Structure to design on (394 residues):
DNA sequence: GTTAGCATGTAAGGAGTTACATGATTTT
DNA sequence: AAAATCATGTAACTCCTTACATGCTAAC
């Protein structure tokens, strides 16, 4: 099973809704994953190229119709998923490995939750939660063993960092709770939206 | 004026207090900048090498004393600042350019605030605050222009991201206020701790 | 005596950015 | 007609990680 990196997955998710140009993919990515995470073209286009080579997407050059042959517009390439790409996306959406809750992967997986089944959503949220609390523990351990104490500013930086992580954990707790109560009911939407129809 | 990257600055700051081995520098870095940010040796040692070449630090091999010539212990290298290194650190601590409030540089600068004068601290905090509110604005703009709406999960991710940034701004506001009231008084400690004594 | 932690390094490679190079379309 | 935005791409470079290679020292 070929490895799918985070960027590839994000693009697969975006193109699942509709074919788009490279430029538009970039904007979408920026809009979905926040103000940061704005990817450069120097990263995007080579990735699209690789995806075409791997037969996950097709590049459709907009060929000027017979109507206006004179104004041959510059290549505007629309990228769309192949069957193979749709299959790969479905595969990834059903998985919940460590790479789903890494710092850089979690938000991409989360932004695809509408197309993920409830059980997988829960596993990812819990995995992420465990990852964060592990970190919290590491810091506490580190603080205990630290012989040389921090100055006031360094301590404040540390305190603030811990607080941010704690809040993230609370956020996850809420989401997990919601997910659990929804599962008890009837709501399990989107299970196979990415699959074959 | 030679450019000082973030890692170099962090090391300069750590070695200003006492000479340390590479291994210890790494631990310190991890302890000061949080559980993440743990640097690999593959990054650290080449940087130390560059710093030695640039005459910012000296590498002192621990030579076995006459007492125990048999157990010639493996090279344990203590790194310490040169005068040139101390000068460079003082220079950096007095500056407050854009590179002081970038995501990856801000916490390093902050962890050195004890050795930074009050005016510079204030400028850095304000610069960081401006950077963050600019981001907040960008997102709002983006949301306004977005035609295709987000699904519930993507919206939640966005909301949470904004909330985290807002909290960071509140944190900065507190720090800025503290800094202002302290300046009014007498407190301006540490101004030239890194300078010549 | 064996595991865990201390200690130093190199080589290969991954994932991304910046700067460059080009040109079309829409808005002001 | 100028400016902004849409649009595609490449080459060089930066920064960092992983995997490897080596060996000492303290604790259990």
């Amino acid at each position: 099973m070929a490895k799918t990196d985070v960027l590839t997955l994000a693009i697969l998710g975006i193109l699942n809704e509709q074919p788009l140009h490279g430029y538009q993919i970039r904007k979408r990515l920026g809009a979905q994953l926040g103000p940061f995470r704005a990817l450069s073209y120097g990263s995007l286009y080579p990735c699209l190229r690789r995806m075409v080579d791997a037969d996950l997407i097709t590049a459709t050059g907009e060929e000027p119709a017979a109507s206006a042959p004179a104004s041959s517009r510059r290549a505007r390439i629309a990228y769309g998923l192949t069957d193979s790409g749709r299959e790969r996306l479905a595969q990834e959406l059903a998985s919940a490995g460590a790479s789903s809750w890494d710092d850089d992967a979690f938000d991409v997986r989360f932004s695809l939750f509408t197309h993920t089944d409830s059980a997988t959503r829960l596993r990812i949220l819990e995995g992420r939660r465990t990852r964060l609390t592990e970190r919290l523990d590491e810091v506490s351990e580190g603080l205990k063993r630290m012989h040389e104490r921090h100055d006031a500013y360094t301590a404040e930086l540390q305190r603030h960092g811990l607080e941010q992580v704690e809040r993230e954990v609370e956020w996850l707790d809420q989401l997990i709770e919601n997910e659990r109560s929804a599962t008890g009911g009837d709501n399990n939407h989107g299970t196979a939206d990415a699959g074959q129809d």
Q: What stands out?
A: Residues 65-71, 190-197 of chain A have pLDDT under 50 and may be disordered. Residues 152-184 of chain A form the longest helix (33 residues). The beta strands of chain A are 20-21, 57-61, 77-81.
